[in-house]
Structure formats: structure tokens, C-alpha cells
């Protein structure tokens, strides 16, 4: 992804009158760009070095990138120099001791949304003792970026319009429930219409196995769009439409999340990332009614589809901070 613009701490670079640029082009016209997410492997030597199995691995560094910014020549045709006052305003915005949300914008690929928690170190770019640009080194708190994806499930809905489709253009899948014991999956086609997709083309779990488990539950599919293979926590806000025990089962991971003694209209918030649960009903002793199995989803090289069973009629918004690898 090549950045043409970005939004940092709620402010867009182009609205400030600047653009992303490069003051030092490679003479060959080609560049090697870091994608971050470098993994460091720890191995032990066995059989006189003929076999060296891995015993541990971890991401080595947080992602970083470097780029230049300058005044937009279409707005500053005769005034490309950056004054001291303008420089101070830029540094006050970019160079801070806390991380803020940075969303990279690629106008050629607007569907590729990537966000980082970042701050910047910066250096002036000087020509003939006049400042014409700023070299920015981005520092982040993770080895990769992310995109936030929300999936809406409503046990009483039977219209595709009631569902928020994932913006991940590589997957473009959403699911909708049409009552107990039924799972329908739809793919967004290029002309915008929804095309039914056979479940057995997407999941390792067979439709028969899902049907055997959905007779007494509402069901939907969650698409894990993360670039990181494995499991990850997701957050959820659940509005119960009936009294009873709320059980959420992920058939791919086998994880069961249970909250007992729920009431109609109660809103349960699962902050799985930080390990926090709360209820809109203060009298609900939710800490003793929860099994402390926070929501997780999973993806493998073969499937991203997580079939979810829900024991009570409800509406649910699941939010995933989905890993994005590839850098800027």
C-alpha cells in the first residue's frame, strides 16, 4: 500500500494543506518496503546441529515506517516553504508522547483501510537554508496494523439489509439467520447483489454437523478477516430479547460463553480484549453468572468461517480489531 494521505488523531493531512511525498527518489525507480511483522525464532541444536527444532517464536519489533510530507503545490503554488509557525503547528500535531489513531489512505485503493496506533519523530528537510518538508518516522505499538470490522446479528431478522457487510474486500462475506436450525451465507457480488454461497465451500465443518447443533439455537456465521492465523478476541454488545441463560457457542473453536439469568431488554457488554463484562441491569450479579470464557474467533489457512450458535433470541454487534499485515 502506498500512502497518499492519512488521518491522524482525527485530522486529515490534506485538510492541513500538505501531501505525502518523497524528496529522495531511487534512481532505479524501485524500492524495498518493510511489511513489518518480522518474527524471531528461537531454536535448539540437536544431533550435532543436523536438527534444530523451534522452541519459541515472537514478533521482533513493532511496525515502523518513514515518509516525507510537504505543502500541497495545488494549494501553495508560490509558497512552498514551511514557516517556523507552520512547523510548530505540524510538530504539535504529529510529535507527541502518546499514541493516537493513524489511518492510512490510498486513493487508488480506497477499500484497503489500515489503521495504526502511532506517534512520530520528525526532521526538517532543508534546501538552501529554507525548510520545504518534514521527514516523519512513524512509531507504533504493534508489529502490524488493523481494521475495525463490525458484524451485526439479529435473531429475528430475515432481510439481508439488516446485516452490516464486512468491508474486507478479500472476503466480502456476511451471514444472516432465518430462524432456528438454519444458516444462510451470502457473498457480495461486483454489482452489489447478494449471491448465496454453499457453506461446504467455505468451512471445514460440514452443514450436517451444524444442523445437528442448531435445532434449539439461533445461528449465524462470523468471518474472521484477520491476516494472523490463529485465535483472537472479539468484543460484543448483546441485547437480550428473552429471559434465560445466554449461551454462545463457536463451533470452530469449541468455545462456549455462558451468562446466566439474563432478562429481556438487558444489554450485556463483553470487552473480551480487556477481560471485562458489564450489564445494563445493576441488580444482575453478572460476575457470578458468567463462566469467564470471553468471545474468541479463529481462522486457519483453510477457513475463516466461525459458525456461531446463540441460545436466546437477541441482537448482537460483534467488533473485531482485525490484524492487517503488509505495511504502508
Task: Estimate what percentage of residues fall within beta strands.
Answer: 35-45%
Q: From the alpha carbons, calculate the radius of gyration and give it in angstroms.
A: 24 Å
Q: Can you count the helices?
A: 3
Assembly state: single chain
SSE run: EEEEEEHEEEEEEEHEEEEEEEHEEE
Q: Give me the count of strands.
A: 23
Low-confidence stretches: 27-33, 157-215
What's the pLDDT, averaged over the residues? 76
Report the sheet with the most strands, covering strand number, pairing sense and barrel closure: 7 strands, antiparallel
Cα(first) to Cα(last) distance is 5 Å
Shape by Cα distribution: globular
Derived from helix and strand composition plus strand pairing, the structural class reads: mainly beta
Write out the strand line-up for the largest beta sheet, numbering strands in chain order: 2-1-7-8-9-6-3
Number of domains as seen in the coordinates:
2
Tell me the helix content.
Answer: under 10%
Could you please describe the fold and organization of this structure?
With 328 residues, the protein is mainly beta. Helix content is 7%, strand content 43%. The longest helix is centred in the first third of the chain and has 11 residues, at 84-94.
SSE map:
Blueprint: E1 5-8, E2 11-12, E3 18-21, E4 39-43, E5 54-59, E6 64-71, H1 84-94, E7 100-105, E8 114-127, E9 130-140, E10 145-154, E11 173-176, E12 184-188, E13 194-196, H2 207-213, E14 218-223, E15 230-233, E16 235-240, E17 244-250, E18 256-262, E19 267-271, E20 276-279, H3 286-289, E21 296-299, E22 305-310, E23 314-324
Antiparallel strand pairs: 1-2, 1-7, 3-6, 4-5, 6-9, 7-8, 8-9, 10-23, 11-12, 12-13, 14-22, 15-21, 16-19, 16-23, 17-18, 17-22, 19-20
Amino acid at each position: 500500500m502506498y500512502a497518499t494521505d492519512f488521518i491522524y488523531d482525527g485530522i486529515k493531512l490534506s485538510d492541513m494543506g500538505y501531501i505525502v511525498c518523497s524528496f529522495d527518489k531511487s534512481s532505479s525507480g524501485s524500492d524495498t518496503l518493510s511489511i513489518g511483522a518480522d518474527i524471531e525464532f528461537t531454536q535448539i541444536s540437536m544431533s550435532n546441529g543436523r536438527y534444530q527444532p523451534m522452541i519459541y517464536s515472537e514478533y521482533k519489533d513493532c511496525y515502523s515506517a518513514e515518509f516525507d510530507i510537504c505543502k500541497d503545490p495545488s494549494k501553495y503554488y508560490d509558497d512552498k516553504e514551511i514557516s517556523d509557525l507552520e512547523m510548530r503547528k505540524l510538530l504539535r500535531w504529529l510529535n507527541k508522547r502518546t499514541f493516537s489513531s493513524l489511518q492510512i489512505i490510498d486513493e487508488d485503493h480506497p477499500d484497503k483501510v489500515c489503521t495504526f496506533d502511532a506517534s512520530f519523530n520528525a526532521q526538517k528537510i532543508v534546501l538552501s537554508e529554507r525548510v520545504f518538508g518534514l521527514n516523519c518516522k512513524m512509531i507504533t505499538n504493534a508489529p502490524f496494523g488493523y481494521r475495525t470490522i463490525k458484524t451485526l446479528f439479529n435473531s429475528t431478522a430475515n432481510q439481508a439489509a439488516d446485516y452490516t457487510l464486512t468491508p474486507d474486500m478479500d472476503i466480502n462475506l456476511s451471514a444472516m439467520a432465518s430462524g432456528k436450525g438454519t444458516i444462510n451465507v451470502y457473498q457480495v457480488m461486483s454489482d452489489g447483489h447478494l449471491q448465496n454461497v454453499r457453506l461446504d465451500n467455505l468451512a471445514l465443518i460440514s452443514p450436517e454437523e451444524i444442523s445437528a447443533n442448531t435445532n434449539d439455537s439461533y445461528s449465524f456465521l462470523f468471518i474472521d478477516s484477520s491476516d494472523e492465523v490463529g485465535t483472537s478476541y472479539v468484543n460484543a454488545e448483546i441485547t437480550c430479547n428473552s429471559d434465560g441463560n445466554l449461551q454462545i457457542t463457536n463451533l470452530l473453536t469449541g468455545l462456549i460463553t455462558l451468562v446466566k439469568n439474563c432478562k429481556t431488554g438487558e444489554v450485556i457488554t463483553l470487552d473480551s480484549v480487556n477481560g471485562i463484562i458489564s450489564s445494563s441491569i445493576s441488580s444482575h450479579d453478572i460476575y457470578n453468572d458468567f463462566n469467564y470464557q470471553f468471545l474468541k474467533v479463529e481462522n486457519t489457512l483453510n477457513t475463516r468461517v466461525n459458525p456461531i450458535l446463540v441460545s436466546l433470541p437477541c441482537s448482537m454487534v460483534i467488533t473485531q480489531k482485525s490484524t492487517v499485515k503488509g505495511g504502508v
